């Protein structure tokens, strides 16, 4: 009995497994200590998030190194077995492998980063976390109008970056072009309407013109792009029922709804103060009296 216990305790394999268990425990204990004591001193959510992810990756790396060093003398015998099993594992875990490849593409291909607003796999929202296999997004839209959060947290496989387009609303150019349309009646003062719309557009969204123009210049240095007009502009179209003005402007990707609300508020006040020179299109219903009918009744004899 004692010989059996002694042989079990001094078994090289048992010793290596024990070394790995103790080593992994020490590694992750150090990682947690570092995260608690050092990361708490880092200012800013972005810097704190990156430092935490780096410390976790360092823990994974050291764990792999420890296992490799402990079993280094046994790896040669497993080469053939791993080669045979590798094909089956790759087939069974192809989605996992594709997601890992997607993570590498995201990390080094500049697809997006945490904090960016993206549309991925049909889901639009802000990137909360980029994991090895999945990207976590705080969703916007759906039953909520505008670009506001709806409260759902969505996990999307990283492999989607190879399957569908990735829309980044806040990458190298964190601005969007937006438009609002205003319909007015025929006979209104068109010149006054155009001047008021342009004035309001420059007043509400004009501050972003210079910033967006600067960012566009950076994009032109990085990619092949033509010059873009970032100042507010007004265009006009007509149809059989009304005259339609379109105000086009640049806005921050997170302020579309607030900016549009402010623009419509200013436009309402300005048009209502025009003393009837500018009139909005309204649906009207006119009731016409029925004409008089003369009916002659003749009796046949």
Give the low-confidence spans. Answer: none
Taking all residues together, what is the mean pLDDT?
78
* Helical/strand content category: alpha+beta
Number of strand segments: 8
Q: What proportion of the residues is helical, as a percent range?
A: 40-55%
Order of helices and strands: HHHHHEEEEEEHHEEH
Read across the widest sheet, the strand sequence of neighbours is 4-3-2-1-5
Number of helices: 8
The proportion of strand residues reads 15-25%
Q: Using the alpha-carbon principal axes, give the shape.
A: elongated
User: How large is the radius of gyration?
Assistant: 33 Å
Q: Distance between the terminal alpha carbons, to the nearest Å?
A: 138 Å
Report the sheet with the most strands, covering strand number, pairing sense and barrel closure. Answer: 5 strands, antiparallel
List keywords for this structure.
301 residues; 8 helices; three-stranded antiparallel β-sheet; 46% helix; alpha+beta; five-stranded antiparallel β-sheet
What's a quick, concise take on this entry?
With 301 residues, this protein is α+β, with helices and mostly antiparallel strands.
Describe this structure in words.
This protein is an alpha+beta fold and 301 residues long. It has helices at 2-9, 12-37, 45-70, 79-92, 94-109, 190-205, 207-222, 256-272, and strands spanning 117-120, 123-130, 134-140, 149-157, 167-168, 175-184, 233-238, 243-252. Helix 2 (12-37) packs antiparallel against helix 3 (45-70) and helix 6 (190-205) packs antiparallel against helix 8 (256-272). The longest helix has 26 residues, at 12-37. The model has no long low-confidence stretch (mean pLDDT 78).
């Amino acid at each position: 009995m004692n010989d059996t216990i002694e042989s079990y305790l001094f078994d090289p394999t048992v010793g290596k497994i024990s070394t790995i268990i103790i080593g992994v425990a020490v590694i992750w204990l150090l990682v947690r200590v570092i995260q608690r004591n050092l990361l708490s001193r880092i200012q800013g959510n972005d810097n704190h998030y990156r430092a935490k992810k780096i410390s976790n990756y360092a823990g994974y790396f050291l764990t792999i190194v420890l296992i490799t060093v402990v079993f280094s003398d046994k790896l040669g015998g497993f080469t053939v077995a791993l080669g045979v099993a590798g094909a089956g594992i790759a087939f069974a875990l192809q989605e996992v492998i594709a997601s890992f490849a997607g993570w590498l593409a995201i990390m080094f291909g500049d697809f997006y980063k945490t904090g960016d607003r993206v549309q991925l796999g049909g889901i639009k929202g802000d990137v909360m976390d980029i994991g090895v296999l999945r990207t976590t997004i705080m969703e916007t839209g759906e039953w909520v109008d505008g670009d506001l959060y709806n409260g759902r947290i969505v996990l999307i496989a990283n492999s989607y970056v190879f399957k569908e387009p990735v829309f980044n609303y806040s990458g190298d150019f964190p601005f969007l072009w937006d438009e609002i349309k205003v319909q007015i009646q025929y006979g209104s003062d068109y010149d006054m309407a155009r001047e008021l719309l342009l004035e309001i557009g420059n007043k509400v969204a004009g501050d972003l013109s210079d910033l967006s123009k600067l960012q566009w210049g950076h994009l032109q240095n990085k990619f092949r792009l033509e010059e873009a007009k970032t100042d507010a502009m007004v265009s006009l179209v007509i149809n059989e029922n009304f005259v339609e003005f379109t105000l086009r402007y640049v806005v921050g990707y997170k302020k579309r709804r607030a900016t549009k609300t402010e623009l419509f508020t200013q436009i309402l006040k300005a048009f209502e103060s025009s003393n009837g020179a500018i009139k909005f299109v309204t649906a009207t219903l006119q009731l016409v009296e029925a004409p008089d009918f003369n009916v002659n009744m003749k009796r046949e004899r």
